[in-house]
Write a structure and sequence with these properties.
The chain is built from 17 helices and 13 strands. By secondary structure, the chain is α/β, with parallel strands linked by helices.
Length: 392
Amino acid sequence: MKILILAGQFYPDLAGSGIATCLIARFMAERGHNVTVCVDEDNRYLSEVNGHPDFKIIHIPEYKDFMTGLAGFGKPARAIAKELRKNYDVVHVYSYMPMLLLSTLGDIIGDTKVFFTFWNAPDIGKRALGFYDDSPLDLSLARFIIESGRYHKMVLGSKASYNSALHLGAKSELTSFCYHGIDLKAFRESLYRDIDVFSKYFNRRPTANRLILLPGRITQRKGVEEAIYALSEVSRKYDAQLLLTSDGRGGRYEEAVKRLATLLNVNDRILISNKPVSQEDMGALYKSVNISIIPSYYEGLGFTAIESLAASLPTIVSNTSGLDEIGINGYNCLTVEPRNSRSLADATIRLLGDDKLQDKLMNNATSSIEKFDMRFFVDYIEDEYKKVARLC
């Protein structure tokens, strides 16, 4: 089958959506499909990750700028239109803005079957795309894209995303759901990599006897500020340090996080990576800490929560959309209220001080996330391609 993927983000972009789309492309290619992926002109996959991939990469000019509102339709639309003329069996669009771009090319799409999956973490009634501070604008544009109907099937990877799509006007008969996730096999192998992650990714080594990891990007909705407030409470009882994973480019929010740490007098208890931690090394980082916290405000699903549990790491997650599909309070993790540093601090103190609770959560962790293997999602969409394209 000849498949064109329009990626919103793509590895080595730090976002989970970029990693997930890359996995799907690779798994499809490994199954013998002819896969081409459209990415932004500045994407570094070919130069940094794999110079000879199993799939073809097409760099689209001003693609990312279009998706973030910094450029118009012109150049990216012309480049994608050129690619569409190569008679693909299936076009699979990952993310809202590439779907908007494709919707302007209806005459060129012709009979090609179009699938739509969005990774954007939804906060129903407040956020869909996540590009605009204005909620009505954000939601109105998402609703327009969904109701445009320029796709034959929408396949979502979590109940949170599925419910968000229906809330925004998706037709239930064109919308389906199957859990996506991570490459569990590769991740579990990465847990045994013999590397010193602290010397490789951090400017200084941790000195505390209890290490807390908040994996993922340093953004407000990941609950980073709440984690720092919680750390100021936790450190009164335990010698603890918090590890944050940065994209290595700093930015205003990361600087604000550092100022907050200084204000709370915990700056010496926070270590921020000096560059993105590669997927191959994330397992070693998880194995180097005592507990993992994911205090996000909301998630589409929560890849870092899946990774934490796959690493058998005592884990705390927010009781919020996406994460509530992974975490079961008192069984495989502890759950806390989102945007609540006191709740996070109490749970962290409790978990650090209770070895029996840690053992219970660790024993239940790995078996609870088997369904979040990206191969199952690829099985599902491959079957859907064949049904819709009538190639079976």
